[in-house]
Task: structure prediction
Amino acid sequence: MSRVTSGRRRMSAAQRREQILDVTRAIVLDEGFHEVTPGRIASQAGVDRSLVYQQFGDLAGLFVALIDREIAIAGAGFAAAVAAVAHHPERSAFDTVFDGVLASIDADPSAWRLFLSPPQGAPPELHARLADSSALVRKFLQDELVRANPDLADPELTAIALHAAGSELLHRHVLDPTGVSADRLRAFIPAAIARRSGH
Result:
């Protein structure tokens, strides 16, 4: 659930900024970027519209701030998942990272939903951040494929296929966490990766 609060109450500038971003994220995820207006944000946050401009400059600045905050959350989750590989040498790196990403998604699904299911009217900055993030994940997958199976015929295309399939599964999990549950994914992923990686 999005962390949206309303009503006028004393907040620090940093807290108020987070509140405005939370309100913006809720509107974006429910209705798309095109439904966000400074007046609507101000009304739902319980602040003067001038404060939105003071904090972010304009609507484009607000969107960039939101995208940067959410990608920082998702990026930290992925980084923590990769770091966990060193602590579980008995497991496949793919399994460990996928488990970590699932945990990060379930901890803050709204942040991940912004990237796994981009809302309507998404600004160019979101697509640019998505492209950069996807390239990093594919590089990780390709490196791990080569490490696990140096004789794999085409690790680059295999990494692309794994990334596409993984993104779609995680997208479905975010939208339907009961039907496409974490346990169901954990049971499916190891076998699927083994087939793709040649093991």
